Fold this protein.
Amino acid sequence: MLVITTLVMGLYPPETVAMLSPALPAVGESSSNSHRMADLQKIQTVLESKVVRQRLEDFGLSQEEINARLAALSDDQLHQFATDVDAIIPAGDGLGIVVVLLVIAILAVILVYLLNHGLSSPRTAAKGESFSEWPR
């Protein structure tokens, strides 16, 4: 029966329809604007650092002057600056490293705890030995 059903289905395949997939959205104003905003956010995060802020103040730049200069940059210049910031500070603010170290420490404590309880399990009595004969 299965062979006959397979043959019938093979002789009369179902009607299929081919369609084109929709085109990708054009790289327009919204895409460019979102990239610019992401780059600005990345730069602002770095500029909020105490060390960077103090160094810029030593050069005589105020927050308003910094914002004006960032606004004057083209999209390409801003993207290049954000990329350079990533190259200079690849680890970010260090929060990720702290989280990873805490997770490793917690796993180590759990492992030690489990190994200690695994090693201190009661031993089984040998043949002919009773539990009352064990030293306490």
Notes: The helical segments are 2-11, 29-47, 50-58, 63-72, 75-88, 95-119.
